Amino acid sequence: MSKLTHRDPNRAALLSRGDGSSSSPYTQGSSQMPSYGRGYHTDAQHPFPSSSSSSFSNHRTAEELESQNDEAIEGLSAKVRLLKEITVNIGTEVKDSTNLMATLTDTFSEATGALSGTFRKMDRMAKKQYGRWWYWFLFLVLVFWIFFFTWLWRR
Q: Could you tell me where the Basic and acidic residues compositional bias lies (predicted)?
C-alpha cells in the first residue's frame, strides 16, 4: 500500500530543481502525472509516453511503483539494520579480545617474574656444588636404593 499522503518532505527536496519546482512528475501534482503507453506527448512537460487510458490507471500505476519502491526500501533498511548489528557485535568482540589480551599480558608478566625468581634461586643453589642440598640429595638416593633392593629381595 502506498503512503503518498504521508511522504517525508525531505524526500521531495531530493528531486527539486533548486527554484522550488520539482523535476519529478510525481511531485508536480496529479494533473501532470506521466502517462504510460505507446505514443509520446509533444508537450515538454510530459516526458513519458502517452496512453489512451484514464488518469486513474496512471495514478494506479504510480501507486504500484511507489509501493514497490517502499518494499525495496524496507528490504534495504532491514539489511542495513542487520549489517549494523553485525558491526556492533564485531566491535564488542574486538573490545573483549583486547581486554583478554591485556589480562593475559599481565598474567604472563607476573608468571615471568615468579619464574625468574625461582630460576635465580636454582642457579644460586647449583653454584654451591657442595652445599647442604647435596647432602639431602645423597640421603634421598640412598633411601631410594634401600627401598628398591628391599623390594627386589622380597619378590
A: 1-10
